[in-house]
C-alpha cells in the first residue's frame, strides 16, 4: 500500500479521486503543504472550475513553483482535468492569468455548433488500448507540446485528451470517473508505466449517456407518477452498484426529503455511493446555497442540481457557476404543458415543489436564462410524462435544445429503446430513466444491447 498525496486546491472533486485511489489499494492523503508536494512519491493535482480560480488557489497556497519543478523533473504526478490545463501558460477562459507554464501552451474554448461544456463519454485514441473516458470541460489544448506524448479526442475538432512525459500523466478527462478504463489508467500511472502509444488524432464525438435516476427519501430510493404516490424502490447503495455493473454512464440522485434529517441522510448516502462508484454522480434536492452544494461535492458528488431554489432566487445559479464551474452546475427544469390557442405553438410552464406549484414562467425562456447565468447542463423533466412510461415529450425537448447550446438531459416517460432514440433525435445529449430500471422492466445493459447498432450511444 502506497501513500498518494492529493493537492487540496479548493477547486477539485477530491472525494472522487480519493475513493478511486482507495479502490486501487492506495492511501490518499489530502495536502496543501509545499513540503509534501516536493517530497511525496506520488502527487495528484485534481481540479474542476475555472482556470483563474485554480491558478489563484495554487498561488495562495504557495504551490506554484514546487509543482512546476516537480512536473518539469518528470516525477510521478497525475494532473486531472483543470490540473492538465494549469500546466499551460494561459487560457482564453481567464485572459491575463498565468498558469504553471510547464509548457508554452494556450487553451481555447470549443467552437462551432457543439455543446459546451463537453459533458460525457468520448472515445480516445493514443492509449495502449482503445476506450472511452468521461470529460467535463469547456476549454481545451489543441496541440501537443514539444517533448510530450499525447492522446486525442474529438469534439467539433481534435483536441488533446492526455499528455505524458516521464512519470507525469495529465488527463483532460476524469480517470476516477471513467469506469474500468479509468481504473486501468490509474493503475498504469501508479506503476510508472507508459500509458500512451502516440497514435495520431482521429474523428469521433461525445457519446449519448443513459442515466438511471435515484429519487431518495430518508436513505431509501422511492418512485411515483408525476412526482406523487411515492413508493419504496430499494436501497440506494445497492441500486447504484447494480446500475454501474450494468454499464450505466452516469447516475443522478435527487433528495426528495423535506426534513433536515433527510438532508443529513442524503449526505451520508452520497458518501457511501461514492466509495464504490467509478462513474459520475449528480446530486440534487435541498441545495439552496453554495454551502449546501459544497457539502454534497465534498461528500462525493461531481455535479449539483438545483430546481426550486433557483426559481426562487435565480442568482444562485450565478453563484454556483462562479464558485464550482459551469460543468458542476446543473439546473433541473420541471415543465408542464399549458393550453394554447389553436394554431399557436406548444408552450410549457415551469413548475416547482415537486410539481405542486406553477410559476407562470415559460420553461423555454427559463432555460435560456439559467444558461446565460452559468448552468452547464439542464435536466429537463416533463411533468406530464413522469412515471407514465409513455415516451419523452419530444416537442418540449426540441424547443429547449434549440434554445440553448449546453447538454440537455431528457427525463420523464421512458419505456422502450425507441424512446431513447427519439429523445436523442429531438436534441437530448443524455436520457434519464427510473421506473423501467427500478421495477425490473429492463436493465441498462439490455437497453444498450438493443441500441448497439446506433453508434451514438454507450461507452
Comma- or semicolon-separated keywords:
2 domains; alpha/beta; 8-stranded parallel barrel; TIM Barrel; 32% helix; 459 residues; Rossmann fold; 7-stranded mixed beta sheet
| Terminal CA distance | 31 Å
Name the CATH superfamily classification of the largest domain.
Aldolase class I
Stretches where pLDDT is under 50 for at least 5 consecutive residues are none
Proportion of β residues? 25-35%
The number of helical segments is 16
| CATH architecture name of the largest domain | Alpha-Beta Barrel
Mean pLDDT: 92
CATH class of the largest domain: Alpha Beta
The main pleated sheet reads as: 8 strands, parallel, barrel
What overall geometry do the principal axes of the alpha carbons give? globular
Count of spatially separate domains: 2
Return Rg in Å.
21 Å
Tell me the total number of β-strands: 24
In CATH, the topology of the largest domain is named TIM Barrel
| Structural class by helix and strand composition | alpha/beta
Amino acid at each position: 500500500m502506497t501513500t498518494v498525496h492529493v493537492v487540496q486546491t479548493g477547486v477539485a472533486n477530491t472525494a472522487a479521486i480519493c475513493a478511486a485511489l482507495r479502490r486501487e489499494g492506495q492511501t490518499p492523503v489530502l495536502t496543501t503543504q509545499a513540503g509534501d508536494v516536493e517530497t511525496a512519491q506520488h502527487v495528484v493535482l485534481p481540479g474542476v472550475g475555472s482556470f483563474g480560480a485554480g491558478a489563484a488557489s495554487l498561488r495562495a497556497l504557495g504551490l506554484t513553483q514546487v509543482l512546476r519543478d516537480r512536473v518539469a523533473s518528470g516525477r510521478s504526478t497525475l494532473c486531472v482535468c483543470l490540473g492538465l490545463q494549469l500546466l499551460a501558460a494561459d487560457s482564453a477562459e481567464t485572459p491575463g492569468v498565468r498558469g504553471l507554464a510547464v509548457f508554452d501552451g494556450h487553451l481555447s474554448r470549443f467552437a462551432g455548433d457543439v455543446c459546451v461544456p463537453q459533458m460525457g463519454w468520448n472515445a480516445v485514441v493514443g492509449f495502449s488500448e482503445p476506450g472511452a473516458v468521461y470529460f467535463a470541460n469547456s476549454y481545451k489544448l489543441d496541440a501537443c507540446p514539444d517533448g510530450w506524448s499525447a492522446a486525442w479526442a474529438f469534439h467539433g475538432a481534435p483536441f488533446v485528451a492526455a499528455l505524458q512525459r516521464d512519470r507525469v500523466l495529465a488527463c483532460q478527462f476524469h480517470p476516477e470517473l471513467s469506469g474500468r478504463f479509468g481504473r486501468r489508467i490509474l493503475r498504469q500511472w501508479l506503476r510508472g508505466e507508459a500509458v500512451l502509444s502516440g497514435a495520431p488524432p482521429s474523428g469521433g464525438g461525445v457519446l449519448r449517456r443513459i442515466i438511471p435516476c435515484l429519487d431518495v427519501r430518508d436513505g431509501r430510493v422511492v418512485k411515483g407518477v408525476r412526482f406523487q404516490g411515492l413508493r419504496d424502490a430499494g436501497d440506494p447503495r445497492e441500486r447504484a452498484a447494480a446500475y454501474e455493473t450494468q454499464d450505466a454512464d452516469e447516475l443522478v440522485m435527487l433528495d426528495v426529503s423535506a426534513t433536515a434529517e433527510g438532508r443529513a441522510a442524503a449526505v451520508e448516502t452520497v458518501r457511501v455511493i461514492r466509495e464504490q462508484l467509478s462513474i459520475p454522480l449528480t446530486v440534487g434536492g435541498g441545495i439552496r446555497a453554495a454551502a449546501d452544494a459544497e457539502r454534497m461535492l465534498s461528500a462525493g458528488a461531481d455535479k449539483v442540481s438545483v430546481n426550486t431554489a433557483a426559481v426562487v432566487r435565480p442568482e444562485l445559479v450565478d453563484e454556483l457557476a462562479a464558485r464550482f464551474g459551469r460543468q458542476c452546475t446543473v439546473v433541473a427544469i420541471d415543465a408542464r404543458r399549458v393550453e394554447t390557442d389553436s394554431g399557436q405553438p406548444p408552450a410549457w410552464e415551469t413548475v416547482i415543489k415537486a410539481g405542486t406549484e406553477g410559476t407562470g414562467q415559460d420553461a423555454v425562456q427559463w432555460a435560456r436564462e439559467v444558461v446565460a447565468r452559468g448552468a452547464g447542463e439542464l435536466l429537463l423533466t416533463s411533468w406530464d410524462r413522469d412515471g407514465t412510461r409513455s415516451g419523452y415529450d419530444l416537442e418540449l425537448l426540441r424547443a429547449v435544445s434549440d434554445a440553448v447550446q449546453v447538454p440537455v438531459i431528457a427525463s420523464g416517460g421512458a419505456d422502450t429503446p425507441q424512446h431513447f432514440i427519439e429523445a436523442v433525435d429531438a436534441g437530448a445529449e443524455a436520457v434519464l430513466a427510473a421506473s423501467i430500471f427500478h421495477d425490473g422492466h429492463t436493465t441498462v445493459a439490455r437497453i444498450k444491447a438493443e441500441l448497439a447498432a446506433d453508434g451514438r450511444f454507450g461507452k
